[in-house]
């Protein structure tokens, strides 16, 4: 991947690297554990760039001897250190800050996968993303409608693969510029609006929306553990809930791999016999404010 200037980018802050209520693992711990237990994912860590939003997160990244980059808040300091609850003003500001950063990466000629830290990589995604070299952008969905070209798919900006070009840089620049007229909207909703307005056709982008069978999440589980590549803790409001339910995903995955190694996994129809994901109850309950 290094040969064609392709990197993997994730963004962390203090809330992602420290224990929630003094209980480890942290969300960043779980993210890295996914690379450890996934299929052919360990070598990918060499290509991971961890962007830290505060000094604590940056120090934790350096302690793990990863590729670390410190991205400061406006005016410096650690303004992005704490947990930013979904759709709070601080959350929206942090999302736009990371959009600005990845725009700069594109301008520098790098292709990249952007991945939220609440995405577990269980298999190497590049094997599914680079088959068609003509595609400019692959982006994940909360719900997949069956058509990889349909702009009516429910976009999720927590995982996407984009190639650097004049077209894609223009696309991201338009997206970032729309923040000025989008007060109170998170960057994902602004992107959805832009896509629905026809920017993909306008810029002649070749975009594909990813099937939740392979790139799944809590909004929509993959129904085939033999094919799942990533699992995203989307449709979830708090870090505490994400950590609880991602731990369950890792337990499910390890149980599947253990059964597979023992020859206990059979296939009936289109499902894997004997396997079922645990319910994401903590994330479901996180939408009740008393539980965050």
Fold blueprint:
Blueprint lengths: L5 E7 L1 H4 L9 H11 L10 E5 L2 H9 L3 E4 L18 H19 L3 E5 L3 E3 L4 H4 L7 E7 L10 E9 L3 H12 L9 H10 L2 H4 L4 E3 L5 E3 L12 E3 L6 H23 L4 E3 L2 E3 L7 H5 L7
Parallel strand pairs: 1-2, 1-4, 2-3, 6-8, 9-10
Antiparallel strand pairs: 4-7, 5-10, 6-7, 11-12
Structure description:
Residues 44-246 form the Nucleotide-diphospho-sugar transferase domain. InterPro entries: At1g28695/At4g15970-like, Nucl-diP-sugar_transferase. GO terms for molecular function: transferase activity. By secondary structure, the chain is of the alpha/beta class. It is built from 10 helices and 12 strands. Strand 11 (266-268) and strand 12 form a beta hairpin. Helix 2 packs parallel to helix 9 and helix 4 (89-107) runs antiparallel to helix 6 (166-177). The longest helix is centred in the last third of the chain and has 23 residues, at 239-261. The protein is globular. The termini are far apart. Mean pLDDT is 88; it is low at 83-87 and 267-271.
